[in-house]
Amino acid sequence: MKHLLMVLLLCGTTSLQAQRNVHWIHGIGGAATSWEQFSNEFGGQRQMLVNTHNGYETGNGLNTMVGDIQNQIGGTAGGTALGICHSMGGVAARQIDVQNTGFFSGIMTFDSPLRGARVVTNVNNGVAADYISHAVSQLRKGPFRQYFPIPQIALPIAGIRDIDFFAGERFVQSQREEQNLTPATAADLADESGYNQQFYGNATPTPKLIYWGNEVSPIHIRLFAGSLGVNEESAVNAFNEIRQYYGDQRDENYTLRWIFFGAFPFYTWRGDGWAAGYDYLAGQSENEWANLIGAGYSYTRSYYTFEFVGTDYNAYLDCVNYANGDPVQIQNCENTYFQWVHHDEVVFARDQSDGLVPRRSQVGEGTHWSGSNSEIRELANNSHNEVRRSNESRFEINEAFNGNRSGGAFFVPQ
Hints:
The protein is of the alpha/beta class. It is 54% helix and 14% strand. It contains 18 helices and eight strands. The strands form two sheets. A six-stranded parallel beta sheet has the order 2-1-3-4-5-8, sandwiched between helices. Helix 3 (62-73) packs across helix 4 (88-99) and helix 12 (232-259) packs antiparallel against helix 13 (264-293). The longest helix has 30 residues, at 264-293. The protein is globular and about 90 Å long. The two termini are 28 Å apart. The model is unreliable at 1-17 (pLDDT under 50).
């Protein structure tokens, strides 16, 4: 009888543990398919009473999305519900947790802009369009000067605006439409927006796993590859081949100007066009992208060098020679002809990011919600959209479901 009671007790405990409702919540512009891969995969491996990967309204601001999540999840929320959230979905889950603590028994956020997204701010103020326009300007100079030189000379003379401006505006507008980035949503997701700030001071007892993607260089190429589902290394190799092509064309034109000396200015002009594109691809594009998303910054580094400041270096050598090894006299010579010169150098640096959102926003740095009952973990080499299907994310979710994160708060039995 004792053994029978123990078996019944164990079975009853397992049954209670199995009653977990898991809700996968996508980000801006997402759909029911956004988390489908992981939802189906883990739903087939774990005992889940409810396993949803619904599509939610992201085009009318965070309050609308929050209402949609609450309406769709409804009665399956509460003490057994886990929210696994990507990007804007994590921002919405935070609001739900603050305003309706207990709706989720645990929340995982993946690359959520908990302090807002600078890239959204820059879409709003036109800086993003300028970035695209500048990219088009730099990359088209070489090919257009090489293969279409007459229009490149004639159009500015005629006062016709080139294609750069229109390309930037049109691309950003297409992304607004594709991502459903309406004015209401853009205002809520903007960097340090009023919407975000209202939740900074709210701590909750809900267990939280906050994951942040940390992509490696070139972050913009890896981000776009991840968004398109293209192999990152193939994309990076193609990027490097294009850069090398620009460099080869630059060198060829700079060589031709010496062979055809009478056309020296023309070949220099063409070579400069290719050089502009090469320099842009070699570093400018990534640095400018980092600035665009708020992960780039510059600072002034000061240093001193001991430099010759006289007009006749031979006079200094004569002075040293006449000193005849006397250290005092040699020092006098140096004091006469050299001095410490101060230099200020602007140095560019980058914060860690997933290619779209800097770390400090992904982890909600300095906010009480992210600092309360939370565990913050890095997803190395992961870009913003890659986290929804990467092996690193798969491992972390498995570990959480195994009970190895946040004191077992996310345990879901197999």
